[in-house]
Amino acid sequence: MITNLHIKNIGIIEDVEIDLNNGLNVLTGETGAGKSLIIGALNIISGGRFSKEMIRKGETNSFVEICMFEPENQNSIDGNIIVSREINSNGRNLCKINGRMATVNELKDFMKEVIEIHGQHDNQNLLDNKEHLSYLDCYIGEEIENLKKQYKENYIKFNQIKKELKENLGDDKERQRKLDLLKYQVNEIEIANLIEGEEEELEAKQNKIANSEKIAVTLNEIDCTISEGVIDAISNAIRNIEKIENIDEKYLQSANSLKSVYYELQEISRDVSSYKDEIYFDEEEQKRVDDRLDLILSLKRKYGNSIKEILEYKKEVEAEIFHIENLDEYIKNLKEEKRNIIKILDDIAIKMHNIRNRKAVELAKNINNNLKDLDMKNANINIHIEFKEDEYFETGKEKVTLFVSTNLGEDEKELSKVASGGEMSRIMLAIKTVLAGADNSKVLVFDEIDTGISGKAANSVAEKLSKIAKNHQVICISHLPSIAAIADYNYFINKNVKLNRTTTSIKKLEEQEIIHEIARISSGEINEVTLKYAKELRQKRMAS
């Protein structure tokens, strides 16, 4: 449920915060006080559209934040979830779910499991025929759940097979052209006879050949310097120091050090001489190395970034060739599997169809009984179930549509094409009353659902809202005293003028204030008669 709603800079709302509770929360107030902006804020935080004109004059952004208590939700922290949305005048959106950045679509997907808004212009689910099947299945409940699960599992397999058949059942000529191309690629790689690591060896050899003259000159200079100069000089130094090495230990140590250097230089001289012998320039060898590297580069451009990737690609192509050459048998098996799954889908779909047909009559009857209580005595809801013989959907083979006739003597038509905004709200209330306790929406918002009704119908609306509030958190904006009287929590929305600016305030009412507010909305005046009437309405709630 929503525990707190915080709104900044939307219309005449500057900065308001409201703590909400479980059960029926009723918001009342004078016309133009900002009640519709509260619903607008809930729509915004649910991922709805936002117009820049909604930003409070003189401000650059609007902000809506709600705190929810959802202990079973995996996104919660200690049961709490904080969702916020900031919208700037430049159109930039900043959405967060428990501090994590989210897109508007992610916000919408997350919030649609939490909040459902119904009002004069917000009955989108009721207008969407795709949602009508969900109402029916929600009413049916456990009786159909297992069948739906089995059907969906097979439906996923069915679509996978359809996709594979579509990909593999191509034109014979096209298939042969593809096969020829794949075989050419494999042959090109095979002829190259690639070996992992050879590219690095060739590049080292190419570098050596390209610098052979420079290497030869340098090694020769080093050899001459060591063998003809340094070694002779150190040899002469050794002979001289040997003459005095017996005089002092330090001379002996120096003599030994010079001998070590002498032997190391001789070793280096031999190595340099051998390096010189290795250096040669062979044009044919250079051409062979260059051509081989060019071939490897050409294959890398086509098949991978390294010899290893090229060889892996070859294996993949060989597997594809095998698949294409054995495609007839593979397709035959796929078609057989498809026929078996279709049979399973048909069997399950017929079972679901029979259940839905039976329960649709029952659901329509219950909705119509509730509509009579809501001052729609002549309205008649009928649930049409169209079974599609050759079509398969994720939920079965049916299309479910709500039809309605709102007046006697009129033909029934699709609900979305007939009912007015006020009728839509009452129809949704009737449906929610029937489905109370079965649907998944945790928070239901009703915006002026009482428009155009009074008397007994108004009392019935109040009773039904109270019934729904036993299984949901309900937030309702109303002008009816009977609804305000039956609320679990009452809030008064007021507008004030400060420094020539209009602002909205919200206050949770105490019991005596609730009595005064019921009296006000019952006749527009607060006097002994209206206060007595308000107390009587409130006492009825206490007694129920």
Describe it.
- 57% of the residues lie in helices and 18% in strands.
- It is an alpha/beta fold.
- Among the domains are: 218 residues, Rossmann fold, CATH 3.40.50.300; 147 residues, no CATH class.
- The strands form three sheets. It has a six-stranded antiparallel beta sheet. The protein has a six-stranded mixed beta sheet with strand order 8-12-13-3-14-15, with helices on both faces.
- Helix 4 crosses helix 12, helix 5 packs antiparallel against helix 12 and helix 6 packs antiparallel against helix 11.
- The longest helix has 47 residues.
CATH topology of the domain at 1-114 and 441-544: Rossmann fold
Low-confidence stretches: none
Name the beta content range.
Answer: 15-25%
Rg over CA atoms, rounded to whole Å, is 42 Å
Largest sheet: 6 strands, antiparallel
Secondary structure: number of strands? 15
CATH class of the domain at 1-114 and 441-544: Alpha Beta
Query: What spatial order of strands do you see in the largest sheet?
Result: 2-1-4-5-6-7
**Can you count the helices?**
17
Helical content stands at 55-70%
Structural class: alpha/beta
pLDDT averaged over residues = 84
What coarse outline follows from CA principal-axis ratios?
A: elongated
C-alpha termini separation: 24 Å
By CATH, the architecture of the domain at 1-114 and 441-544 is named 3-Layer(aba) Sandwich
